[in-house]
């Protein structure tokens, strides 16, 4: 279970606060206007943003002071999820351990993850030789071997076309289900939330609201969400 | 960026190795300086010869800066507004003097401007007396040869940094040459020229090899040359130390001035970018530009050509002393380049991670440190415990490394910073740190810059004729020193052959390392 206790984050002039609780294995979309603090929320959980006060707990464990690499789960950013000078396989290997050579057994695990995302044939290509969708798949393969108890997605598919994005979201949902991951996914698009998220967190006006069931929230949006979604809200 | 918020924990590599590297360099420069200062507490003040050396140093540096900059402005202007066949080659050529061994250029300049050189021959046809190259003229000509290209690149960069929109606007306003000058060129030059002048002045202050070969005599001795003479001929350590102190004062002042230059790289990144220009279409300005470009190209190419032409006969029958000197030079350059990478890489990582003070310290020390001052200091330090002459080669390698350090940092830091910014977050998320980050991310991603910096250092070290002249006994020589000795013995054919060999080696070392870094490198 992921728990935010009166979390306060200060990032330059920007301030973000909120409390919430997410049950293990839940798929949650984080939506809200740009600049409201969606990415900051994920960065705080992943350990890239220090807390000013409050606590972030994972299964009762306080994450304060833990560097990003020592926190549970994996994060995918908007871009730069792969090292461009390493092959896909080398990139995925880093998910198991970035600081040592891998055993044969671990290498088999890498091959399996690559196969799982449909990149078995392209393991020895560099990211530049892959399409946008294939690059996303490679990053997801790494997430698979990283151990995906907590999966944080900061709009990694924003640059993909609608069909490809839907495909990736389905793959993410499959992966999350397979390993019982708790998923937090930033999105601009309420359709993304409807597609794979059971719950939605609204981040608006520098406040993180607790999660609410997706359909309920999107069908009856509160004023802040209504303003963001525009006139066709509640479709 | 998110990474700045928590700088203490969010670093993929530690900053202490860089701090140690900076401390080591500071200790070397300041330690030798202290050794010199303690030694200089002799009774004597500056004698008449010393004052004359100080005056000559300032005079030749001022004249060299004045001529280099004065000539560079029209050349840069012509290159900025003309597209012509060979422009890229010429821009590359403008970078060549930087890694060209001084002694090679001197031989080339002698062949062109010397008493029996090409220009004198030409003048003799019309009944004029030959040109006089030894003394102030020669020193200034050589300095202009080395610094005109640098000044041209710095000023050309100023021209290239004028936004394309401004040129469009002036074209729309139908601005003539005078208006162009007032609206665009004069304001840009006001910003660029003081810095460029200070850089050239600072470089010429520390001139040793040029003064050693073309100067000399009581009237044209620079401070660095005077240090060498006090050492080599009189073995007067106290006087050498005192002169070193004066030299250091000068270079520190000049370095502080030069450091106020906006940090353009001066190595020509983006200098061949095409900007659409609509001005300067008149026949007069076209002729003028062609004239300047041709003159500058001739001034650069002729001496190099002379080295090739004069060197070939001697190359076939080089004395064995040249081959042993070549082997020595290669060892010194290899050691110097290795040391440089061991110092510059951790240092640039620390600077890229926000330890800015380290960069400034290293920059000032690198620019202000004079090879002969460090050499004198090391000599003073080593003298009581060991035979300094036995340490000539390692000392030369270390001094060459310090000299190359500021340039290497300028090449490495921007790239290291970029790689850190692009990859730190992902590396931290994967818990990749320390050596793993160095080997898997930083080194492969900076390969091109590492190759460039290594190539530059190897070429500089191969061509350096400085501290080795101070330390070497008659049995040992680097290749540049051997060329100088052959010249001194009037064995010109052998000297020219060896100079051609040195030229080829320096260019090859630079080319191999630079190319090696970029070979199969991804963008």
UniProtKB/TrEMBL annotation, chain A:
UniProt-listed Gene3D superfamilies: P-loop containing nucleotide triphosphate hydrolases
GO molecular function terms attached to this record: ATP binding; ATP hydrolysis activity
Cited InterPro entries: AAA+_ATPase, ABC_SmlMolc_Importer, ABC_transporter-like_ATP-bd, ABC_transporter-like_CS, P-loop_NTPase
Keyword entries, A-Z: ATP-binding, Cell inner membrane, Cell membrane, Membrane, Nucleotide-binding, Translocase, Transport
The keyword Lipoprotein is annotated on this UniProt entry: no
KW Cell membrane (keyword) present: yes
Domain ABC transporter: 2-230
A Pfam entry, by short name: ABC_tran
Domain of life: Bacteria
Name of the protein in question: Thiamine transport system ATP-binding protein
Species for this entry: Tritonibacter scottomollicae (Epibacterium scottomollicae)
TrEMBL record, chain B:
Major subcellular location class: membrane
InterPro entries attached to this UniProt entry: MetI-like, MetI-like_sf
Record keywords, A-Z: Cell membrane, Membrane, Transmembrane, Transmembrane helix, Transport
Subcellular compartments: Cell membrane
Transmembrane intervals: 20-38, 58-77, 89-113, 133-156, 192-217, 237-259, 291-312, 332-354, 361-383, 389-413, 450-472, 494-513
Membrane association type: Multi-pass membrane protein
Cellular-component GO terms for this entry: plasma membrane
Name this polypeptide is given: Thiamine transport system permease protein
Organism, as annotated: Tritonibacter scottomollicae (Epibacterium scottomollicae)
Lineage: Bacteria, Pseudomonadati, Pseudomonadota, Alphaproteobacteria, Rhodobacterales
């Amino acid at each position: 279970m992921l728990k935010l206790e009166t979390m306060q984050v200060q990032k330059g002039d920007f301030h973000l606060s909120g409390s919430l609780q997410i049950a293990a294995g839940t798929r949650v979309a984080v939506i809200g206007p740009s600049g409201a603090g969606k990415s900051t929320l994920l960065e705080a959980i992943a350990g890239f943003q220090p807390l000013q006060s409050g606590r972030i707990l994972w299964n009762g464990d306080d994450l304060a002071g833990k560097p990003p690499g020592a926190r549970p789960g994996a994060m995918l950013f908007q871009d730069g999820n792969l090292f461009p000078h390493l092959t896909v396989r080398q990139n995925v290997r880093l998910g198991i351990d970035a600081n040592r050579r891998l055993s044969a057994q671990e290498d088999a695990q890498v091959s399996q993850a690559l196969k799982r995302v449909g990149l078995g044939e392209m393991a020895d290509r560099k990211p530049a030789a892959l399409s946008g969708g294939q690059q996303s798949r490679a990053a997801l393969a790494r997430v698979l071997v990283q151990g995906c108890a907590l999966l944080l997605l900061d709009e990694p598919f924003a640059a993909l076309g609608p069909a490809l994005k839907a495909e990736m979201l389905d793959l993410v949902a499959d992966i999350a289900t397979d390993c019982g991951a708790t998923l937090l996914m930033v999105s601009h698009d309420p359709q993304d939330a409807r597609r794979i998220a059971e719950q939605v967190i609204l981040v608006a006006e520098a406040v993180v609201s607790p999660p609410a069931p997706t359909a309920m929230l999107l069908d009856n949006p509160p004023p802040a969400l209504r303003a963001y979604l525009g006139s066709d809200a509640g479709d | 960026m998110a990474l700045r918020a928590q700088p203490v924990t969010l670093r993929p590599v530690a900053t202490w190795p860089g701090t140690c590297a900076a401390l080591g360099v500071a200790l070397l420069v300041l330690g030798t300086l202290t050794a010199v200062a303690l030694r200089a507490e002799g009774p004597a003040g500056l004698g008449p010869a010393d004052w004359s050396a100080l005056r000559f140093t300032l005079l030749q540096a001022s004249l060299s800066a004045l001529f280099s900059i004065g000539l560079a402005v029209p050349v840069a202007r012509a290159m900025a507004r003309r597209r012509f066949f060979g422009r890229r080659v010429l821009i590359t050529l403008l970078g060549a003097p930087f890694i060209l061994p001084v002694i090679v250029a001197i031989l080339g300049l002698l062949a062109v401007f010397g008493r029996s050189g090409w220009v004198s021959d030409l003048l003799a046809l019309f009944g004029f007396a030959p040109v006089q190259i030894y003394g102030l003229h020669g020193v200034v000509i050589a300095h202009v040869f080395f610094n005109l290209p640098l000044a041209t690149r710095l000023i050309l960069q100023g021209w290239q940094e004028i936004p394309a929109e401004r040129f469009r606007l002036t074209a729309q306003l139908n601005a003539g040459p005078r208006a162009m000058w007032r609206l665009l060129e004069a304001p840009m030059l006001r910003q660029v020229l003081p810095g460029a002048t200070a850089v050239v002045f600072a470089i010429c202050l520390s001139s040793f090899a040029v003064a050693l070969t073309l100067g000399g005599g009581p009237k044209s001795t620079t401070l660095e040359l005077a240090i060498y003479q006090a050492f080599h001929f009189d073995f007067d350590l106290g006087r050498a130390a005192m002169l070193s102190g004066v030299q250091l004062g000068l270079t520190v002042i000049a370095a502080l001035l030069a450091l106020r230059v906006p940090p353009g790289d001066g190595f020509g990144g983006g200098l061949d970018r095409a900007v659409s220009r609509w001005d300067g279409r008149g026949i007069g300005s076209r002729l003028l530009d062609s004239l300047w470009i041709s003159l500058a190209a001739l001034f650069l190419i002729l001496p190099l050509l002379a080295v090739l032409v004069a060197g070939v006969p001697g190359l076939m029958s080089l004395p064995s002393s040249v081959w042993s000197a070549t082997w020595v030079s290669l060892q010194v350059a290899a050691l110097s380049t290795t040391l440089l990478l061991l110092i510059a890489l951790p240092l640039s990582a620390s600077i890229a991670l926000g330890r800015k003070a380290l960069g400034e310290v290293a920059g000032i020390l690198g620019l202000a440190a004079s090879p002969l001052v460090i050499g004198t200091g090391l000599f003073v330090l080593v003298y009581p415990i060991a035979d300094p002459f036995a340490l000539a080669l390692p000392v030369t390698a270390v001094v060459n490394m310090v000299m190359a350090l500021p340039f290497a940092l300028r090449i490495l830091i921007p790239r290291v910073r970029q790689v850190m910014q692009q990859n730190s977050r992902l590396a931290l998320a994967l818990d990749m740190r320390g050596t793993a980050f160095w080997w898997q991310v930083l080194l492969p991603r900076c390969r091109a810059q590492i190759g460039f910096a290594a190539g530059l250092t190897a070429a500089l070290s191969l061509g350096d004729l400085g501290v080795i002249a101070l330390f070497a006994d008659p049995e040992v020589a680097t290749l540049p020193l051997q060329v100088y000795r052959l010249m001194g013995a009037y064995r010109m054919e052998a000297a020219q052959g060896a100079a051609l060999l040195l030229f080829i080696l320096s260019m090859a070392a630079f080319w191999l390392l630079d190319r090696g870094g970029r070979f199969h490198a991804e963008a």
